[in-house]
Amino acid sequence: MVESSKKVKPWREAVDSRQRETRPLMQGAQRVRVHRRQQASLVSACLAQRVVARAELIDALGLGFFAVVGCTLALDALALPKTILNAIPLAMKRAIAVGIGLFIMIIGLNEGGIVVNGPTPLTLGNLTTPAILTFVIGLAIGLVLTVRKVKGALLFSILGATVAAIALNAAYGTPVEGSPFNSAGFLNGAATLPSDVSQLFFNFDLANFATIGKPLGAIFAVWENGVGALSIGLAVFTLMLSDFFDTAGTIVGLGERAKLTNDRGQLPGSDKVLLVDSVGAALGGAFGVSSNTTYIESAAGIEEGGRTGLTSVVTGLLFLAAILVAPVAGIVPAQATAPALVIVGFLMFQVIKDIEWRDVIDGFPILVTIVMMPFTYSITTGIGAGFVTYGFLKLVSGRSKEVRPLMWVSVAAFLFSSAHC
């Protein structure tokens, strides 16, 4: 730890050692706050194993574009995605919503530094740092305003926690040599106001846009890099499967929370949602970035009253405008946004009251779905595990006729994908 003229607090001595435990997950969470965590990680992992190891990254992104455009749009034309969604039992749909709620809460607790990796897969973080105090302040503000039904409660909690973080960082934050975090537990550069306010506006590097369009010219180049047709086919299949079920789980969960589903748990217009998501994912590949798909964090917007497509249009326009003031977003630390995710996770988790648990054949797959999502950090994995368990128990109990044919197709697809990715 570097020398500082500020008085050393007792918690300051412990923070460096505990940060070794919090650093991997918190640093990873900070990097991916602006895009889809699970989707990018699963797709990237399969791409790395099947394609990138033997081809250029830009070729792999082109393959991602090809997979989504060529396959997902073809399935949309046949109306298969909507049919598959309708084949999922209502209880499993509700389990997906609950699992996503728990997943969001785990993300929030991790970003806030409450839950970290350490000697055990999940352990309690260091609760004596100013960064944790920021999380507590934000959570307290969010809960109080939510209970009192104040409009914009989550936004006010983020703003209040950010102000507190800036003050705490100024009072206690000092650089730690060789660490991405300072002594207060904040990521370097976060919770800090620049000395020159002009740095907050129009301060971005045009080189960051250099990948736009490049994957389009490399869609077929991957065939020339020694990657076999089987590997490419498996990669395309995995991309398609991951993109579809990740999106399907998200829209089911968010639809339940927004009360847009009917009495059978079906979301009207889901085919249009899946089509738009496919186009977005394809454009993400064309622009040379991670899969650009539906956000589970959209639940925060739902809690603030967002129900129509206009909400998403406004959000998209604000993201576009944010390019001009990107450094402003960098001021907000993860500990300030994490409380909003925890609160939203709780609200989505409430769907659990509508789930029937007494039958082991139906109840156990529900539990598997709910638990596997947060513990594997993957919506798709949670859905897949739940589907496979559901099919297995229906089969061994002699009730296989209760399972719709497309559910069996989904079970087979998950088993095949798991064996080849």
Sum this structure up briefly.
With 421 residues, this protein is mostly helical. It is built from 16 helices and 2 strands.
Topology record:
Layout: H1 10-31, H2 37-50, H3 57-77, H4 80-87, H5 90-112, E1 115-116, E2 123-124, H6 130-147, H7 153-172, H8 229-257, H9 270-286, H10 299-303, H11 309-322, H12 326-331, H13 334-349, H14 360-376, H15 379-396, H16 405-420
- The protein's oligomeric status is single chain
**Tally of DSSP helical segments:** 16
Side by side, the strands of the main sheet go 1-2
Roughly what fraction of the amino acids lie in strands? under 5%
Q: Per the principal axes of the C-alpha atoms, what is the gross shape?
A: globular
* Helical content band: 55-70%
- Kindly report the average pLDDT value: 78
**Can you write the helix and strand succession as a string?**
HHHHHEEHHHHHHHHHHH
- Measured on Cα atoms, how large is the radius of gyration? 22 Å
Largest beta sheet, briefly?
A: 2 strands, antiparallel
Strands, count = 2
Residue runs with pLDDT of under 50 for 5 or more positions: 1-55
- Which class of secondary structure composition applies to the elements? mainly alpha
End-to-end separation in angstroms reads 43 Å
